[in-house]
Amino acid sequence: MSVVRGTDRYITLAVDECDACGIKGIMFHCDDPQGIQYGSTLEMILNMDRIFDSMSGPKQTFQMRHFPGTNPVDFETRTSDEEVRKGKLSTFRIYVQYRYHASWQGLIQWEEGERQELFESTLQLILIMSRMLKGDFQAGQEGEALSFFHVAIDSYDYGRIVGNYQSIPAVLTEQYDVPADLAGTLGNFMEAKALKEKYSAYGLNYGRLVSNEICSICRKSGQKATFTIKIMFCDHSTWQGIIHWREGRAEQTFRSFKEMLYLIVSVVGATTAGAESYEDEVSTIALGL
Fold first, then answer.
1. Is the backbone of residue 125 left (phi > 0), alpha (psi -120 to 50) or beta?
2. Each residue of 136-147: pLDDT tens digit?
3. Is the dihedral of CA 221, 226, 230, 236 positive or negative?
4. Cα dist. 61→50, 57, 78, 98 in Å?
């Protein structure tokens, strides 16, 4: 059992910007005099996990997976000299009580909106924050949820992923030029549950992977990496499924939305010389596809 005080599990999240590309701001933790900058939802997640890992609590019950031939997630934490303050846009107090099921469980308090909600997963936390920031508390519309998609990633910088969604109908992606904040947008696409008639005209079968004959755009590779993600189940308010890394010709199962993000970052966020050499090798393979 964790011996960490309950107050140590609180993170104050000062949100200064929020747009289609994600959220930006500074997070504060009681045991650290310095704030930590984040420029995307993913960078926020990685930094929060790093804080909890450094305290050894709440205990993470699963070790995050990574693709064969890559290294576990490693990144540079960007500190700030600012003292604890409110966000220019919104302020959240996030209490992570447990880290079960390769995810988080806890409570989020929205100071400006005087609202709080429980969350059962990291994905659910992201969706709650999105609704709070947009002032939209309506549930996703009824319909057939997407069960797979392709992501072509061109660049990665401090959790900010730039590229293109492939095989997701324009009716869902029209508000986003690029998936600049992968962690923040994928969940919203899935929650939207586009009505079947809205995307049936595309001639795509969303019950299985789209073949090259049906969707030529799915053959295009990202400059950094390309992934096909298949969602098999949705338990504990998060996703379980399979992610295929096209250039590395490898696939891995994931037990949560957060673990899926960790698998992606293990490829696109590689920083060691060995990982860079491996990336050069698979990039060569990609050019031959």
1. alpha
2. 655 544 445 668
3. negative
4. 15, 10, 27, 9
